[in-house]
Amino acid sequence: MAMTCFEVVKQVLDATYADIPGDEATRDAAIKSALASMTKDYKDLTHTGGPDFSDPVVRFAYVFKYVSSHSHWLYELIGWNGSTKELFRQKKLRMVAIGGGPGSDLVGVLKYMDTMSASPSLHCELIDGCLGWKTTWSDLAHELDWSRPLHTDYVTHDVGDPGTWDAPSNIAKADLVTLSFFVSEIYHLGTAAEDYLRTMLKRLKPGAIVLFSDNNAPKFYTMFDRIAAEAGLEVLESDQGNRKIYDWGEQKDAIGVYAKKFEHQARLSGSLSWRVLRKPTAS
Ligand SMILES: C[S@@+](CC[C@H](N)C(=O)[O-])C[C@H]1O[C@@H](n2cnc3c(N)ncnc32)[C@H](O)[C@@H]1O
User: Fold this and answer.
1) Could you list the residue range(s) of the whole structural domain that residue 200 is in?
2) Does ligand 1 lie within 6 Å of residue 102's CB atom?
3) Would you say residue 185 lies in a domain?
4) Interstrand relation of 92-98 and 121-128 (parallel, antiparallel or unpaired)
5) Per-residue pLDDT tens for 84-137?
6) Is any atom of ligand 1 closer than 6 Å to the C-beta of 108?
7) Less CB within 10 Å around the terminal CB: N or C of the chain?
């Protein structure tokens, strides 16, 4: 049976839970409280930005609540576009996930490879402002018993600090670049967010495919569309609407134990915008 995003998330949650200090009751109370504040933080995303991921309790809450659905939606997006699917027929695939620290983008790609029996060796660079995510995903291949070559790298860029944007990244070599729920997270930084996106999109090689998936709010996608157009990217797919995870049973089987413990459900539906873009090859 094909791997589900929830199964991978369950493995990561088990490992992260073990890393949180304190006895079981203390950990559970902290996680419940983080889940409640996270829902509140995301209601005011435009003004204050997202949660503070430097705390492992907050990282656990994010992975539990959001990673399965975000990775599932990215997995679906890959399958909706012929040029993107074509990338998975290559022998080697190099991806860069900007704002990919929590691993959703990588899990979505792995789910696509697993479902389609696609076997490129995968190099995945995660770029994120929060170093705390690094340990979560660095030994994923080992945890998953993934049989194909998989290498992950972690690069720290803080959008609010332009001095970090030149930390060495291989984005100029990437075949596939993902921005999943990242533009909305940095939107509150204003000009710095725009300049960062401009800087990164300018570095793409001809033929690189960009996948954008985010909340369905015009302020986020119009900003991204404008910057993508300035960078000369062609639009292959562009739409917005309601999305959900179809197999609800997936959640119950894999992470039901945590849902029960925290009396909280993982996200299973949302109103989204999505884009597939390509840097033109020279004519
Ligand atoms: C909503 S999460 C999205 C994660 C993942 N791509 C997904 O789809 O679930 C936003 C990510 O942006 C990162 N982030 C937030 N502010 C940032 C900043 N100023 N610079 C760099 N990364 C930032 C966070 O650490 C987090 O990993």
Assistant:
1) 5-278
2) yes
3) yes
4) parallel
5) 999 999 999 999 999 999 999 999 999 999 999 999 999 999 999 999 888 777
6) no
7) C
